[in-house]
Specification:
Shape: globular
Order of helices and strands: HHHHHHHHHHHHHHHHHHHHH
Helix content: over 70%
Largest sheet: none
Strand content: under 5%
Structural class: mainly alpha
Radius of gyration: 22 Å
């Protein structure tokens, strides 16, 4: 993204809002790792594995439902002169679907547990089903906040969710509720987030508004298929590993590796809805050149994540030892492919946002619909032979495949490609970061020092290589100065 693009007001608002949201979502890293480490030690590999499988299945349902509406909600709210009618329609429809999905999961809990060979899973799934309605409602309110440009309020809701989740999970498990306490803590966090959201936007709930969603179906239907494909793919590796003869302990190891590969997903969650809202307004106003700069800059930003993935891949054994302890050592080899797969899925999120804003949601279906089918076939072939590591590499291959097809689709529609020079610089810096982190062996809290020093080295290496323009560096200095300035 050039200097002009950075200086543009929509980009400044998007980047500043994205930083706020990312910082709020980044609370998932300390709180999530503390929660994961606490539960892993309190529940053990078997209990933690049962919780992670249940959480993955419920996350499938929740994110499938929210993904059906979230991108459409952001686009429609961003376009509307008055967001309230469309907000009421979308929130009411999402509540109805979430209640139906929760009831269906309650009914199917026992057959699912039998299919996976984990009888104890049924009760956990039934309890977790109560999280679906408040979670989906909170996400619907988040989309409205993004659509109307209330990025700070959206960030506050995320911060409330992650901090309350840690506190509630620890409190309830310490009361002796074990896995049930962890589930109830997650439900409580969804309720807290919903309460914070409704302080700022209060769309009405009505049966009549629910019926009006049919008028939007022509646009939502392609997004539904794309969202379902991506959500089926998400955590399909963990469920396939369990279903194909894996033990709960193995699921716990795999779930721990997924927990440590989550940072790129937070970036996608934080920035792509804001990207969609900003691009939608640019296309609506006929500012195609501006939209082109914003889209190319977003693709470039994904490339700059690659060196940090290399750092995480090299430091995986030390990080696993620090967070989860020796019992979870088998999780370390799974982290490198899962980290790079997560970066590829950020590219998927960015490219789909560009296509939706450009009015081409059908292309997202063409690129993503085959993914879960191909991945399932690959898991069936690979997992019995290569186990968890094979599952992780299948996940990486599938993510790279769909990301490549979506990049081609964005070029076809918008003539936007990721900058080749940025790709070359990121690859070179990634190799250097991986080598340094591999040679620098630490343990205990010193791992955090290693990560911090090498991460700073990555940034300095990118600056020295000329990756950032003068305008971008000036903008960072201006933000740093305004943040450090004393309040009047």
């Amino acid at each position: 993204m050039g200097t002009d693009g950075i200086a543009a007001t929509p980009v400044r608002r998007m980047v500043a809002g994205g930083v706020r949201v990312f910082l709020a979502e980044s609370l998932l890293i300390p709180t999530g790792l503390l929660t994961a480490a606490y539960l892993a030690r309190r529940l053990g590999p078997e209990g933690y594995g049962i919780f992670m499988v249940a959480a993955a299945l419920v996350a499938w349902v929740e994110w499938s439902l929210t993904a059906v509406f979230s991108r459409a909600s952001v686009r429609f709210v961003a376009e509307a002169a008055d967001w309230r009618p469309i907000g009421s329609t979308l929130v009411s429809a999402q509540l109805a679907l979430a209640a139906a999905a929760a009831a269906l999961l309650w009914i199917l809990a026992e057959p699912i547990a039998g299919l996976l060979g984990i009888p104890r899973l049924a009760g956990t799934l039934r309890l977790f089903a109560f999280d679906i309605p408040p979670f989906c409602l909170a996400q619907a309110h988040r989309s409205i906040l993004i659509g109307i440009g209330s990025f700070s309020e959206r960030a506050l809701a995320a911060a409330a969710r992650w901090t309350s989740r840690l506190l509630l999970v620890v409190f309830l498990v310490e009361l002796g509720l074990s896995i049930e306490g962890a589930v109830l803590g997650s439900i409580g966090a969804s309720l807290v987030e919903l309460a914070v959201c409704r302080r700022y936007v209060k769309p009405a709930f009505s049966a009549r508004a629910t019926l009006q969603v049919g008028r939007l179906w022509g646009y939502i239907a392609p997004l539904l298929l794309s969202a379902l494909a991506l959500r089926l793919y998400d955590r399909l590796d963990l469920v396939a590993l369990t279903a194909l003869g894996g033990r709960p302990e193995g699921a716990g190891h795999y779930g721990a590796a997924q927990s440590l590969a989550i940072l790129p997903s937070l970036l996608a969650l934080s920035f792509t809805p804001l990207l969609l809202a900003t691009l939608t307004r640019s296309f609506r106003d006929g500012a195609r050149a501006e939209a082109h700069r914003i889209g190319r800059g977003a693709l470039r930003a994904v490339l700059l994540l690659i060196p940090f993935a290399g750092l995480g891949a090299a430091a995986a054994p030390e990080v696993v030892g620090l967070i989860f302890g020796p019992a979870f050592a088998p999780a370390a080899p799974l982290i490198p492919p899962l980290l790079f797969a997560a970066v590829a899925l950020v590219l998927v999120a960015v490219t789909t946002a560009i296509l939706i804003a450009a009015g081409r949601p059908g292309l997202t279906v063409a690129c993503t619909a085959p993914l879960p089918v191909l991945a399932a076939a690959a898991y069936i072939a690979v997992i019995p032979v290569h186990g968890a590591r094979g599952a992780a590499f299948v996940t990486l291959a599938g993510a790279v495949l769909v990301a490549s097809s979506l990049v081609a689709a964005v070029y076809r529609v918008c003539r936007i490609l990721p900058p080749a020079a940025s790709a070359a610089r990121s690859g070179a810096v990634c190799a250097g970061a991986y080598a340094v982190a591999s040679l620098w062996s630490t343990s205990g809290a010193l791992v955090l020092v290693e990560l911090g020093v090498v991460a700073a080295g990555i940034v300095l290496a990118l600056v020295a290589a000329g990756e950032f323009t003068r305008g971008e560096l000036a903008m960072v200095r201006a933000w740093r100065g305004s943040a450090a300035a004393p309040a009047p």
